[in-house]
Amino acid sequence: MLAEIKGINEECGVFGIWGHEKAAELTYYGLHSMQHRGQEGAGIVVSKDKELTGYKQLGLVNDVFKQVKFDDLNGKIALGHVRYATQGGKGLENVQPLLFQSLTSGMALAHNGNLMNATALREELEKEGSIFQTTSDTEVLAHLMKRSGEVTEATISEALNRVKGAYAYLILEDDTLYAALDPAGIRPLSIGRIGEAYVVASETCAFDQIGATFEREVLPGELIKINQDGLTSFRFAPRGKRQMCAMEYVYLSRPDSDLNYVNVHASRKRMGKELAKEAPVDADLVIGVPDSSISAAIGYAEESKLPYEMGIIKNRYVGRTFIQPSQELRELGVKMKLSPVRGIVEGKRVIMIDDSIVRGTTSRRIVIMLKDAGAKEVHVRIASPAITDPCYYGIDMSTKEELIGANNSIEEIGEIIGADSIAYLSEEGLENAIVKDKTINQGVCMACMTGLYPVAPADEKEMDISNC
Amino acid sequence: MLAEIKGINEECGVFGIWGHEKAAELTYYGLHSMQHRGQEGAGIVVSKDKELTGYKQLGLVNDVFKQVKFDDLNGKIALGHVRYATQGGKGLENVQPLLFQSLTSGMALAHNGNLMNATALREELEKEGSIFQTTSDTEVLAHLMKRSGEVTEATISEALNRVKGAYAYLILEDDTLYAALDPAGIRPLSIGRIGEAYVVASETCAFDQIGATFEREVLPGELIKINQDGLTSFRFAPRGKRQMCAMEYVYLSRPDSDLNYVNVHASRKRMGKELAKEAPVDADLVIGVPDSSISAAIGYAEESKLPYEMGIIKNRYVGRTFIQPSQELRELGVKMKLSPVRGIVEGKRVIMIDDSIVRGTTSRRIVIMLKDAGAKEVHVRIASPAITDPCYYGIDMSTKEELIGANNSIEEIGEIIGADSIAYLSEEGLENAIVKDKTINQGVCMACMTGLYPVAPADEKEMDISNC
Amino acid sequence: MLAEIKGINEECGVFGIWGHEKAAELTYYGLHSMQHRGQEGAGIVVSKDKELTGYKQLGLVNDVFKQVKFDDLNGKIALGHVRYATQGGKGLENVQPLLFQSLTSGMALAHNGNLMNATALREELEKEGSIFQTTSDTEVLAHLMKRSGEVTEATISEALNRVKGAYAYLILEDDTLYAALDPAGIRPLSIGRIGEAYVVASETCAFDQIGATFEREVLPGELIKINQDGLTSFRFAPRGKRQMCAMEYVYLSRPDSDLNYVNVHASRKRMGKELAKEAPVDADLVIGVPDSSISAAIGYAEESKLPYEMGIIKNRYVGRTFIQPSQELRELGVKMKLSPVRGIVEGKRVIMIDDSIVRGTTSRRIVIMLKDAGAKEVHVRIASPAITDPCYYGIDMSTKEELIGANNSIEEIGEIIGADSIAYLSEEGLENAIVKDKTINQGVCMACMTGLYPVAPADEKEMDISNC
Amino acid sequence: MLAEIKGINEECGVFGIWGHEKAAELTYYGLHSMQHRGQEGAGIVVSKDKELTGYKQLGLVNDVFKQVKFDDLNGKIALGHVRYATQGGKGLENVQPLLFQSLTSGMALAHNGNLMNATALREELEKEGSIFQTTSDTEVLAHLMKRSGEVTEATISEALNRVKGAYAYLILEDDTLYAALDPAGIRPLSIGRIGEAYVVASETCAFDQIGATFEREVLPGELIKINQDGLTSFRFAPRGKRQMCAMEYVYLSRPDSDLNYVNVHASRKRMGKELAKEAPVDADLVIGVPDSSISAAIGYAEESKLPYEMGIIKNRYVGRTFIQPSQELRELGVKMKLSPVRGIVEGKRVIMIDDSIVRGTTSRRIVIMLKDAGAKEVHVRIASPAITDPCYYGIDMSTKEELIGANNSIEEIGEIIGADSIAYLSEEGLENAIVKDKTINQGVCMACMTGLYPVAPADEKEMDISNC
């Protein structure tokens, strides 16, 4: 779904709760609010009397759990996951949480991110006799933790020190919930409270959804342990400068989430304002590509004193069962998900705000659509710098060959997509829009726009993009 | 779904196409774009070699047609319908188009509106031996047309002259498509072209969806006939002043549709601007209740020079299979469809724009939600006048007893919903926002706000609100 | 399903119950036991406080009602139907009971049989302004009854006197249940009791299924009325000699049903015994084609003192979702529903009992299958006379052109299907096997074997085979 | 389903094919024919270019594969499994084939049987760091094989020598298919050919289903390897006397299968004949409890010269979606799966043949049902000896406490179930009915009737009944 529009795909959202009577149900609602982070599969594991049971399935959260009785998933501790599957790993076996049963204990894992050295580690483990049932890099961590003995903060720390990449991990062992964030803090992971219970989630919108309150961020290199003694913090790696993924702000997260203490909608609006300052244009109105570019478009309109209008509309009822129009019908003019609003754009000079451009095909389609609907001029303004490099930290972008920003000058891009003018936000502009307070927000990972990787790949194998 | 949020429900959308190879498929996409007009059921009837066949089912358009092969619905003429079912008429038999098979011909009917004298007519027909398979008032028209003999423009006109109310009818007889609009033009109905083919639809968004171009409105009291001789216009009633339903602009239609030559989003933005002029307030920001109030909120913000912000977010994945949170969970704070954005509203004086208030329960819930999320003040501004009277023309509002606007002063309403201040748009403000050109737009039906009915009910029986 | 094997299809089963708390549920189980009579659709209508509501759908009884809450179908009176749809009438609108709602009363109809003059009657009704929503001949009777005024025993009798053919009708009007059987009693219809409640059903297996006891047969030309005054009998036509359809015994009914006081299994066993007397053959063992020929095969074995063996097995799990093997796979040897048992037939001289032959294609396939499995000889014995003529009374057989028995001598048939020898049961043999007591059983309709029609078609139009 | 009637449940069927273009489709049909061996889940793994991919799901074969495109499962080698799940192991993760992916190869396992020392082995493996994703004993073998290095005939043999119990294993490693049978040959496993391809299956009915021909049995203690060099036989254990499970003949297998060269229907018929000799009774007719007792009933009738009749009928349409009658309705007389045929049994002295009695509750229900239907006397004859002991080899019987045969004398059993007389077949009778040729059939495992276990449990833990 997202792939069609953008070519960028978030890979997974995690949710954990410790100590609530309605643990599984709250996990359902929490996952539901993070549905945008992964639409291929979902699962919940609960722990009751140290016994772990779970249910997972391919599909949207609603569909996965529509016939599940939450009474069958009782227990006060739960772990949940929504998954976006990259190619090669679409099977149900890869849907998380992964659940492992031993005669003496149960363990479940949920992961958002990407391990760069997963293949090397797996080779080593397989040589020693480990057998794998998934192609997920998450299973590697499970083996590493078990190999080093019982699962404790020590063995988890040891295992985490062997993996490299970007990750937010939730681990449920018997009745203890662990949460860990990579040393550069690239992926988001926040802690909240609901009554006496603890909640951990990829995005704070999950807290708002269930009525929980935000407590604090998990810190880079921190391992959190939650059990009957409350929450304890361990450090498995020196605390590095936090470099949260910029694309989480630009495109991936929900506008109502706060990531590392910064509201996503507000940061997007600032991106739009910065863009209006950096790249003004004489035009009649400002429109945004729904949904992710609306905030930036409003910001651009406010700053430029131009009216913000609803020039493109998104069909809310396009879902799994929508019959995609055939090529023939599309050529006849049948629209997919987005439609232009002729009554708004006809005869007008339009500034079209988009959050980013990946391959350029969608942007081109939208520009043509607007011109077909009578727009006199279409000025494209992108609320982030050009994407020029691949991501090794869990975002499924296109390969470098396909990235329009990696292979063309800005002028060429404008020509390719048919814009009357085009401009991108600068790197400084993006960073300023995100970072409110240097002591807290420190920095952002903009590797896909700058090629500067917080965690550099050591060799070709580590550049191989695997899945969450 | 809509009912939960608002208590107002559009009743049905119609779509017809004559002379296109892909008639059924285009009807599918056309209905899809009008899904918001009716979510209880959908159907398509096609005519091939004068033989009519169809498929209909309860559910959303996507679900209804997900396993239908359009090759089984071939024919160049098609009729479609999306239905909102009021109580008492939820059965599949009431889903439209209604299809009647005689030994010599086939006839199908699709209807948006409400016949006020349906019960009286039905009594008469039943006495004469007519038997009915539905509880829909649409079946009454079928009997009337057949009773007067063969179905022609004459018999249709005769039948239409016996019914009273608001209606947009599409009738497919063998290979002729008829379209008729009530003498006051209360319901919307537009004509478009796609290549050589004709299209008729409740909203123009259906034309944009399939790449058709708008041609003109069907006029009040006009009967359109489309067959191999092209389009012919008949008049079955004197052309009255057009009084299109104001609620279509305020709430019901899609923002990208043009109704009677006026774009809906633009009219909503004007409502917001008028409201800002009429009822300004000193505050920090403006927010709208998604989705229908966003345009008015942007208009208000533009006029008042206050920032427009995304202070409430709507969960896009709430659908049929969503498990509604139990009362217990809602009390714990689990949200349904709308969530406040704490990062935006916390500590702020908020102007909350809503398009209308029916019973007030939803407004009250949203105000509380915003205050819980930290809003310092919540000033409610409604982009239309108070709803005080029932609708007899096909909009399913609550009864007079339940209408908060019928039973309370504005101040009382503000208190009930917990707003720090409240104001409604004036009747003149609304009319000005809709009517661009008096020669074209003439007037609007605001009966539910003024009690002035363009087609007055003759007795109690005609006030009985039936379904489309 | 049946069609594949045989080419004969029963058309519909009816079930009614008056005066039981669990009316809808018992109807469900009753219909379930008559599933073999119609697998295309099913429906139940209940009456409560004279208000009729119902549910029907395409599919098997189980699937139709799997998500229906019987609490939503409460009422002490219920009417049910299982339907086999012939070509041209597969739509949901044709699934029964047909339900008609007038302002003053509700009426539902369920029908098993065929009206020969339905087209002529419909022409007349349509001329008078009646409009039809189905292509079912059942709707004709509804119009006839309503035309003659209120629905009473008088108007029903009058309507029945206008229709011609074979029929078992159940009619539910407000809170009265009527049952009517055609003057020749061609179709089966029995009355039972469960506690104080009355039950009427096409087959007595429905009584056994729900724990009801058989009371008596509905008589030819009889109209039964059941309401708060109990059961009253009327006669709408002179009582003719009962001529129950022979194919009900031979093939269509369940072996545990008693039709007109004769058990079906027992009659089939007698057919087998008669056949053994008429057409003995020197062989090693006797096998039957499952399921309907098993009883006759056992009878043949008993009479001939040859062992009865399970030489052909039927796969019990072949259902709606079974993926039919492609032509390519069938040629490779993949079996459909029936498989030969090599361990039984290899090297043996086999007598294969079948109940009837329609087109001969299935018989031929089975003979080849047995020979491929090593049978040395295959002697085909058919437990009924050759089918030579079409049925106008509601059994969907092939047309005369396709009937192998209408176009070939017995020897030719044997050659076509590859049998080493072949013989049919004589007409007398069949009649003797069915008729136990002349005063009760009187006669059987063997029109499809003899061309002697109890109700003769008047013209070509009446020979047109319509559906139940 | 079966559980309701009997309380005995087969645990799983396996199917493998090597070297056929349509490998996955033929596996589907093969599994379909063995559906009776396991109805809880099914799966297929295919190998193409040494890459293994698969699909599995809970449910019947038809339902599991109804939306699978076999084109997505292409490859000339396939492995399939149908599963019956005992309590505690109902999750999808336990559905087989289990699939393991390493960086260098893929391996899949399918298993029918039970490992008695699975828990002990698992404890050992977990101590060494193995992690398990299922609770199935099959996963233990996978770890054992992988631990000993690469998967070859040597490592498989080594692993098989560590497990104890009854098993038929199919192992697919890259492009090699292995088949192994336990040293006592308790579970069935046969080899067939279809064209050039090899097939291995639990029952020969799978060969007939797909048009394959039986080649030979896998021998006790034999390991078969099939790859591009053809079929090679290895011996991993000395060849013991084959002691095939008697219950496979009595109840579990399909009548058309040949197990160890003996046809199941024929053996059952001999059981009936032996029983007639051992326990004759003066009566009017013989009936069998469908489906598994029909063959024995026919044998009893033949031997006793009494008529065989269809006195109990089984509803063929009872399936997953059947709504089970409530206790209240059952007490009213609503039948479940089996109905008595009043027309047959009324006033008669009936010999009722059943294949076995487990808890006695079903037998009791049937006897009552027959008496309610008017049977004058019901003489129960069981075509196997009383079940007195649990099975450790993969048949899910009740515990010893629940076995009526373990806790009551034959007379007591007769009284409990309400029979007028009762008799069981003797052990010798059963053995004689099965064993045709001592050199081939050698012996049968009758441990559940005699307590004499071919592979004796060493301790309490090994008596713990786990699942296949």
UniProtKB/TrEMBL annotation, chains A, B, C, D:
Record note on cofactor: Binds 1 Mg(2+) ion per subunit. Binds 1 [4Fe-4S] cluster per subunit.
Gene designation: purF
Active-site residues from the entry: 12
NCBIfam families xrefs: purF
Cofactor: Mg(2+); [4Fe-4S] cluster
Gene3D superfamilies registered for this protein in UniProt: 3.40.50.2020, Glutamine Phosphoribosylpyrophosphate, subunit 1, domain 1 (3.60.20.10)
Function: Catalyzes the formation of phosphoribosylamine from phosphoribosylpyrophosphate (PRPP) and glutamine.
Domain Glutamine amidotransferase type-2: 12-229
Domain of life: Bacteria
GO biological process: 'de novo' IMP biosynthetic process; purine nucleobase biosynthetic process
UniProtKB keywords: 4Fe-4S, Glutamine amidotransferase, Glycosyltransferase, Iron, Iron-sulfur, Magnesium, Metal-binding, Purine biosynthesis, Transferase
Name this protein carries in UniProt: Amidophosphoribosyltransferase
Binding site for [4Fe-4S] cluster: 245, 391, 445, 448
Class of this enzyme: transferase
Pathway it works in: Purine metabolism; IMP biosynthesis via de novo pathway; N(1)-(5-phospho-D-ribosyl)glycinamide from 5-phospho-alpha-D-ribose 1-diphosphate: step 1/2
SUPFAM superfamilies: N-terminal nucleophile aminohydrolases (Ntn hydrolases), PRTase-like
Molecular functions per Gene Ontology: 4 iron, 4 sulfur cluster binding; amidophosphoribosyltransferase activity; magnesium ion binding
This enzyme's EC code(s): 2.4.2.14
